[in-house]
Amino acid sequence: MSENCNQSCNTCSKDCAERRENKNDFSEKPHEMSKIKKVIGIVSGKGGVGKSMVTSMLAVTMNRLGYHTAILDGDITGPSIPKAFGIKEKARGSELGMFPVKSKTGIDIMSINLLLENDTDPVVWRGPVIGNVVKQFWTDVIWNDVDFMFIDMPPGTGDVPLTVFQSIAVDGIIVVTSPQELVSMIVSKAVKMAEMMNIPIIGLVENMSYFQCPDCGKEHKIFGNSNIDEIAKKHDLKVLAKLPINPKIAAAADKGMIELFDGDWFEAVAKILEEKLR
Ligand SMILES: Nc1ncnc2c1ncn2[C@@H]1O[C@H](COP(=O)(O)OP(=O)(O)OP(=O)(O)O)[C@@H](O)[C@H]1O
C-alpha cells in the first residue's frame, strides 16, 4: 500500500495488493507521475452561462490562497480557458507524457486549444472522441502535486459529461446556472446525474444574477427574479455564490487577464473547498 494511501483507488495509480477494482467501474487511473488531491467538476445545463468563467475564477481564488491549482479544460468544442488566461504557447510532451502549460500566476492548464496548431480551428468530433480526449487529459498529462483541479466540463448532462464523470475521480460538482435558464429542470438533471455517479454536489453558483449600477450602486435583476434559493432548498443544496453581470469580468477574460479579477464572490466557496482537503 502507498504510504500516502487515502483509500481512494480512483485517484491513485499504484498497483498495490490492496487495490479495489469493480466490474462496473469505468474509472481511469491518472498518469503514474500525477499527484492530485481534489478534483472539482464544474457543470452547466447548457452553453454560455459562464461555466468557463466560474471555473477560471475558482482556480484563481484557490491559487491566491496558496494552493497549487490546475484546470483541465474538458469543454473540447468551446475551449475558452487558455484565452481567459492569455496563454498563447502550446503544450509540450515527452516520452513520459504531456505537460500542462503554466499561467502567469502558476495555474497548470491543459486544453485542446493548447494542442491545436491553430486555435481558431473548429473541433468537429463526435461525442465518443471528445470523451476520449478529456480522458487523455487525465491519464496522459503529468499533473504535478496539484491541491485542487477544476474541470470545465463539457456543457449539459448528456453522453460526454457522463463519460467524463465515469472515467475521472471527481470529488464534487459545482453547478453553474443563470437566471434566464430553466433552472429547476437543469438542477434536477444535475442532481440525478450526480446521484447516479455517486458524486456529491458542493452547491450552485448563479451567474449573471444581477447588474449593479456603477453610479448609484442599485442592483437590477436584468433577467428577472430567479428562484435559485427555493430550488436549492428543495434539493437540500447550498447557493455558493451569486455573480453579477460585470463588464469588467468579461473584459478581463477577453484580454487574457482573468487572473487580475477583483471581487470576493468566491470567499464562501473557498472555505468549503479548503475543508475538503482536511
Ligand atoms: N458574470 C459575467 N459578467 C459579464 N460577462 C460574463 C459573465 N459571465 C460570463 N460572461 C461572458 O459570457 C460569455 C460566456 O461565458 P463562458 O464562456 O464562461 O460560458 P460557458 O458556460 O463556459 O460557455 P460554453 O459552455 O459555451 O463554453 C463570455 O464572453 C464571458 O466573458
Automatic annotation (TrEMBL):
Keywords: ATP-binding, Hydrolase, Iron, Iron-sulfur, Metal-binding, Nucleotide-binding. Transmembrane segments: none annotated. ATP binds at residues 45-52. It holds the Pfam family ParA. InterPro entries: Mrp/NBP35_ATP-bd, NUBPL-like, P-loop_NTPase, YlxH/NBP35. GO terms for molecular function: 4 iron, 4 sulfur cluster binding; ATP binding; ATP hydrolysis activity; ATP-dependent FeS chaperone activity; metal ion binding. The keyword ATP-binding applies. GO terms for biological process: iron-sulfur cluster assembly. It comes from the Bacteria. Belongs to the Mrp/NBP35 ATP-binding proteins family. Homodimer. Binds and transfers iron-sulfur (Fe-S) clusters to target apoproteins. Can hydrolyze ATP. This is Iron-sulfur cluster carrier protein. The lineage of its organism: Bacteria, Bacillati, Bacillota, Clostridia, Lachnospirales.
